[in-house]
């Protein structure tokens, strides 16, 4: 079948993204689902900084590639050996297809799936297959096993989570990345305790989701740090008790004053090594720093090594919120339905696929939180 898709043929090097309209909107050929695969009609797909990190070259991938990884849709056809899904099911995508058999999946760490990571780096489905072909008869790669910036996509069944069909699909899409990553980092990676102090650096979709997760976990104070006043206002609206404009105030000093010595938990959601250092410096004795941002692979940061010992401080990475998608996406949706996660507040713009480059321009300028493409 034919489907309209947003393709990336060449990453923009060096970063940062320079608003040169890198995504090409083309009709591509999409093969039918193979063994263990599912054809999904995309209802909504979010524009995420992880996409931008590929576009601007910060996170190198193989080209050409059908972009997009945060999405929700409706099953339209299933391939052989698919037993969990059927035509009409509403689904959210997981950007790590968890094989279920590697040592990490077997021990409950699906976000670290070896086979899923291998397929994602290669730009293929979990089986190693590629299902898109452009008009030059060139095979196109899959972004994180999803490739959501197209009206139809084929994915491994391991990339899908069935959801309640009553939830609006534009809201559901956000649970595939922003909410899964941010809330997951709070409840899975850090395991924030009620009454503990939390600071979050960066009020993008993931950072705001982290604020929501911290508030839902009973943390106090919940401190949001950014340089954009409108995003700090939104953070306050969805659960932050305090906000700090890092363009005006010294965030480390302000955080230490609010928390009387340093935060118990600090979350870095920007992807800049200097912000990660700030996040570490913002913690107090016994504090934990959790990093979710995706800096360029060449970037490094350094800290006082002795502080980790004598102050028992911890630095942890969190990928996909240390989540098990089939466990966490449904439970986070239930938290949303119960009013504990005001996810709808993250939506700032709705676009057509033809407006996608304009949307990434806006994202690069930090003028949006979550923009959704609908078909």
Outline the secondary-structure elements.
Layout: E1 2-8, E2 23-30, E3 37-47, H1 49-55, E4 65-66, E5 70-78, E6 90-93, H2 103-106, H3 114-122, E7 132-133, E8 139-142, E9 152-156, E10 160-162, H4 169-172, H5 178-190, E11 198-201, H6 205-216, E12 222-226, H7 229-238, E13 242-245, H8 251-259, E14 263-268, H9 273-281, E15 283-291, H10 305-310, E16 314-317, H11 325-337, E17 347-351, H12 356-364, E18 370-374
Parallel strand pairs: 4-8, 11-12, 11-14, 12-13, 14-15, 15-16, 17-18
Antiparallel strand pairs: 1-2, 1-4, 2-7, 3-5, 3-9, 3-18, 5-6, 6-10, 7-8
Helix pairs in contact: 5-6, 5-11
Could you explain the architecture of this structure?
By secondary structure, this protein is an alpha/beta fold. The chain has two domains: 2-176 and 342-374, Medium-chain alcohol dehydrogenases, catalytic domain (Quinone Oxidoreductase, Chain A, domain 1); 179-319, NAD(P)-binding Rossmann-like Domain (Rossmann fold). The protein has twelve helices and 18 strands. The strands form three sheets. Strands 3, 5, 6, 9, 10, 17 and 18 form a seven-stranded mixed beta sheet that branches. A hairpin with a 5-residue loop joins β7 and β8 (139-142). α5 (178-190) packs across α6 and α5 packs across α11 (325-337). The radius of gyration is 20 Å and the shape is globular. 53% of the residues are buried.
């Amino acid at each position: 079948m034919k489907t309209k898709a947003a393709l990336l043929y060449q990453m923009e090097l060096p970063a940062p993204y320079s608003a040169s309209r890198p995504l090409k909107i083309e009709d591509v050929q999409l093969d039918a689902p193979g063994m263990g695969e599912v054809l999904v009609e995309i209802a909504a797909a979010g524009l995420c900084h992880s996409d931008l990190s590929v576009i601007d070259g910060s996170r190198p991938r193989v080209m050409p590639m059908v972009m997009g990884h945060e999405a929700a849709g409706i099953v339209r056809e299933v391939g052989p050996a698919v037993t969990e899904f059927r035509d009409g099911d509403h689904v959210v995508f997981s950007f790590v297809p968890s094989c279920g058999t590697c040592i990490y999946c077997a021990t409950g760490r699906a976000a670290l799936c070896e086979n899923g990571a291998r397929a994602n780096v290669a730009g293929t489905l979990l089986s190693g297959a590629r299902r898109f072909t452009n008009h030059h008869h060139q095979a196109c790669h899959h972004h994180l096993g999803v490739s959501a910036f197209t009206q139809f996509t084929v994915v491994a069944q391991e990339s899908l989570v069935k959801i309640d069909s009553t939830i609006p699909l534009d809201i559901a899409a956000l649970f595939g990345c922003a909410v899964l990553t941010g809330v997951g980092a709070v409840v899975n990676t850090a395991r924030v305790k009620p009454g503990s102090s939390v600071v979050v650096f960066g009020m993008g979709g993931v950072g705001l989701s982290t604020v929501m997760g911290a508030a839902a976990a009973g943390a106090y104070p919940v401190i949001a740090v950014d340089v954009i006043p409108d995003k700090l206002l939104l953070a306050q609206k969805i659960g932050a008790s305090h906000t700090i404009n890092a363009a005006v105030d010294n965030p480390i000093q302000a955080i230490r004053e609010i928390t009387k010595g340093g935060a118990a938990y600090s979350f870095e959601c920007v992807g800049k090594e200097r912000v990660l250092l700030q996040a570490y410096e913002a913690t107090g004795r016994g504090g934990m720093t959790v990093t979710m941002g995706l800096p360029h692979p060449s970037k490094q940061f350094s800290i006082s090594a002795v502080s980790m010992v004598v102050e028992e401080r911890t630095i942890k990475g969190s990928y996909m919120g240390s989540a098990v998608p089939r466990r966490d996406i449904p439970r986070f949706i239930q938290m949303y339905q119960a009013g504990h996660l005001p996810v709808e507040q993250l939506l700032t713009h709705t676009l057509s696929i033809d407006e996608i480059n304009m949307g990434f321009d806006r994202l690069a300028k930090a003028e949006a939180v979550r923009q959704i493409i609908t078909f």
